[in-house]
């Protein structure tokens, strides 16, 4: 094989590998930005909420995940929002209130 053909073959291999990786990511439905229907990515960044979740689960605050995925009804309750836009590509909010359902989602995320 000449040098030009070798370069083209290498480019083809890299392109196929990249396309395969992108396909594997998009088919999972679990990659950030592709939440299951009616789920919302809720940030547990507020210290008081994180502390209550940790206390409820009997773990250290550092062991609480940074965010969890919860049903929209839970997200509205913990984020203090009446409605979340269904048209946004990534539906997310920051928890301002503790609920046992939020703690359960954090427990499931750490398993």
What's the helix and strand layout?
Layout: H1 3-26, E1 39-43, H2 47-57, E2 67-71, H3 72-79, E3 92-94, H4 100-110
Parallel strand pairs: 1-3
Antiparallel strand pairs: 1-2
Helix pairs in contact: 2-4
Describe the protein in words.
The chain is built from 4 helices and 3 strands, in the order αβαβαβα. The protein has 111 residues and is mainly α. The radius of gyration is 20 Å and the shape is globular.
Looking across the biggest beta sheet, what order are the strands in? 2-1-3
Distance N terminus to C terminus?
52 Å
Secondary structure: number of strands? 3
The helix/strand series, from N terminus to C terminus, equals HEHEHEH
Q: Indicate how many domains the architecture comprises.
A: 2
How does the major sheet shape up? 3 strands, mixed
């Amino acid at each position: 094989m000449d040098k030009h053909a070798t370069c083209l073959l290498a480019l083809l291999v890299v392109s196929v590998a990249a396309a395969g990786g992108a396909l594997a990511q998009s088919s999972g439905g679990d990659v950030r930005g592709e939440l299951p229907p009616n789920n919302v990515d809720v940030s547990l960044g507020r210290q008081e909420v994180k502390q209550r979740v940790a206390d409820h689960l009997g773990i250290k605050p550092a062991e609480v995940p940074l965010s969890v995925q919860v049903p929209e009804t839970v997200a509205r309750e913990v984020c203090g929002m009446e409605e979340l836009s269904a048209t946004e590509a990534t539906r997310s909010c920051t928890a301002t209130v503790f609920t046992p359902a939020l703690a359960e989602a954090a427990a499931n995320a750490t398993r």
